[in-house]
Structures are given as structure tokens and as C-alpha cells.
């Protein structure tokens, strides 16, 4: 970074920290980060225990928010590699989505049927530990019209970690003080729908395989995860599809989404059933 750019960036930090904590400072943070490199969209989710993801901030238009936030909160987040990384206690820092994605994530039906609707080419995110079992994930998204984040850009963006952590922690404390999360925000029902998907007809092993397939694992990856042979996985898949009356992995995801739709998804989410 040249001296002129460094001066502009540090001046931006001073202006940013002068803004009121909360939404105004989060908005300022997004503008400040764009001084480092182009970003098409930002979204900040907090993952906390058995609560469904809380969107603290985003830069989406209303139509895009319906997909990125509203639909996502109603169930597809259970298949999101960033969410799953949080459940495994991922260390704070800047991470690429593909660092956590299963081997067939970008070929899997979650990506093709849901994620691809967003038009994203790449997503990187700051993971910020909020304490008390809560983790904030600030996603920096680029559309398919933009190129991937370069190594140099990642290194520069990573330098912002301390500022990002301060702004997000302040926003989280303010949110907790002003608007405590309601009990009805707990998502046991959605988690149960995922954990029990197919329980009425599938064996325990078949349910394990279904959950991995939904999250984008190939047959080979499923075999590795469960320590069984790929041939055994293929037999299980054939039996699963026969029991559920479907013929492909896309139909498997559609069936899962439809089960969530019955009680969870808003009307505009019916497009996910295709």
C-alpha cells in the first residue's frame, strides 16, 4: 500500500470510529473496507447456540434480501459451510468459503438450487468471537461479474481484522442491550426437521448419508466421513432414493426444502422447491 493510500485508509478509520455504534458504524465499516478492494455485498450474521441466524447488517436491495437473508434464515443455513464452521468452533480470522466447503459443494444441489440464485462468484468472511458461544460472520461477497479475491487483496483485508472485531463487538453489545433475542427465535424446530428428515422411513445410517449429501459431499467424501466404502454409499443412495420416491440429489434437496416450507418458509420461498 502506497503512502497516499495508507493515509486515506487510516483517516477512514478515524472517521469510522467517530460514527455512532451500531448500524451507522457497520455501514461505515462496509464503506471503509471497500477502500481496500471492491466488494459487491456485505452481510453480518450472528450464530448463537440454538437461535436461528440473526442478520445484524446487510447491504442488499429488498429483492436480494429475500434470498440472502429471509430464505436463508428459514433453513438453508443448516447447509452453509460458514455456519457449519461456527458449530465446530472455528477460530476467528478471515476465511474463504471454499476453505470449508465439501468436495462437491459447488456441484451440489444446495449451491445449484439455492446458493446460485444469489449470483455470487466468491465469498470471504471475518469470523469474530463475541463470547458466550456466539460467533459473528461478516461476509464480503463478489458477484459472478467480478473476479475472485486475489492473494494480495486477502492480505490487505486481513489487516482490518482488529477494526472489524471492535465495530462488530460494539454493535452486538448494543443490540443485546436494546433488543434482547426473544425465546421464539430459537430454532429447535428447524434443526429437528433437518435431524429427523426421512426418519419415518430411513435407517439411521441412511439419515447420516442424506445429511452429508445435502451439505454437498460426494459419494467418495461421504464414504471417507463415515469410514465405509464408496460402493456401500452408492447402494445406500439407491435405497434412499427408492424409499423416498425420488430419482436424483436435486429431488432430495427439493424434498427437504418442501418439508421446511410447510411450517417455516415465507411464500416467496416457494421458488426454492423447483
From TrEMBL:
SMART domains: HTH_LUXR. Transmembrane segments: none annotated. It comes from the Bacteria. Signal peptide: none annotated. Keywords: DNA-binding, Transcription, Transcription regulation. One of its GO terms (biological process) is regulation of DNA-templated transcription. The lineage of its organism: Bacteria, Pseudomonadati, Pseudomonadota, Gammaproteobacteria, Pseudomonadales. GO terms for molecular function: DNA binding. The keyword Zinc does not apply. It comes from Pseudomonas vancouverensis. This is Helix-turn-helix transcriptional regulator. Residues 195-260 form the HTH luxR-type domain. The keyword Transcription applies.
